Amino acid sequence: MDFALSELQQLLKEQAERFIAREYGFEQRRALVGSERGYSEAHWQTFAELGWLGLPFAEQVGGFGGTAADLAVLFEAFGHGLVVEPYLASVLGGLAVQRGGTPAQQQAILPALIAGTHKLALASTETGGRRGGLYVATRAKKVTGGWQLSGHKTVVLHGACADTLVVSARCHGAFDATGGIGLFLVPARAHGVGRRDYRTIDGLRAADITLDRVELRDDALLGEPTGGYALLDELLDLAALAGCAEALGCMQALIDRTAEYLRTREQFGRKIGQFQVLQHALVDMFIAAEQARSLTLAATLKAAAPAAERRRLVAAARQFSADAGRLVGQSAVQLHGGIGVTDELDVAHYFKRLTMLPVWFADNGQPLERFQAAD
Fold first, then answer.
1. Domain final position from 92, 118, 144
2. Phi, psi (degrees; rounded to nearest 5) at 305
3. Which pLDDT does position 334 carry in this prediction?
């Protein structure tokens, strides 16, 4: 099998790398993280102009019909630059509309998303369930002419800057049942919606969302009122693949920076890279990253496979990416010494992102459990 990048993917890779080199220096990124928004609106418009916002969407709504493999190329570059713009959140919300919405819902939202004038966020995470298990306590009550939503969503990635929230809510059944879940389009400024914004340890933004008897019309529902789980599970697996690809970019950046540090840092009158034990540590970092790359590639190529096959490969990639990220991050910090944990060095920021990536959108189950269940 030919694993070389396609012409489109190579162009996308080079385009993203140029953007990162020009606009995402470490100090530039630190300024963005500390700003009120937490990202750059100018960068967001650049994403639209470059076609990145339309990459995974159908040509009928102005997109490019890209695949999961195309997205992985972009997310790896984002990982290398520690990008903080709300790309993943908007793409997941948009894909929920594309895969579950009516033509009218798609035309109402997707062209504006692709143009950079409308942002979305996927609000699926709640507290109260067992760690890593699907738990939806937010209630959707059928009322005359529409629906009424009440509940609380936590750690919604970029939830505060979204114009529309894609909210999972239970139409019937127990809190942890896979049936009875619907996905709803909720205007972020609708009456009864409350948002509390905060910064996460990896420099991104998240929000806690309260829904207090939010009134929605019938056309706010995506698909069937009890058929949301399959679509949500598919979206969360895609988010996991994006996280794996982003982790590859983070790991490669740490390997490059650590190798350079070992070549230049002197101790006991010698470059520390001459010490064999440190060479072995760097090799271990490289091997772990390459193994994670292989599994991520395998899972990405099967993103459109039947659910059982997709879940198994994505679960394997998630688990191995998390383990590799931990090894690479910890080793980079250790080999840099005390400065490796300071805010002034980008190594610490990559380590924080690698720590958080396995946690984002992990509410459809722990990877080892999903891997076993897919047999």
1. 118
2. -75, 170
3. 95
Residue 281 falls inside a structural domain: yes
Return the C-alpha torsion angle 328, 88, 204, 284, nearest 10. Answer: 0
**Residue 127: domain span:** 121-226
pLDDT at residue 2 is higher than 70? no
The model's pTM:
0.94
- Identity of residue 246: E
CATH of the domain at 198: 2.40.110.10
Q: How many CA atoms lie within 13 A of 14 on its CB side?
A: 7
> CA–CA separation, 103 vs 294, rounded Å?
37
Rounded to whole angstroms, the Cα distance separating 20 from 78 reads 8
Cα 232 to Cα 223, 320, 342: the distances in Å are 12, 23, 38
Q: Look at residue 235 and give its three-state secondary structure.
A: helix
Q: How much of the chain is in helix, strand and coil states, percent to nearest 5?
A: 55, 15, 30
Residue 2 lies in a domain: no
Rounded to an integer, what distance in angstroms lies between the CA atom of residue 15 and that of residue 39?
20
Q: What is the distance of C-alpha 372 from the center of its chain? A: 24
120-123 and 164-170 strand pairing: parallel
In a domain, residue 356? The reply is: yes
Count: domains in the chain: 3
pLDDT of residue 362: 83
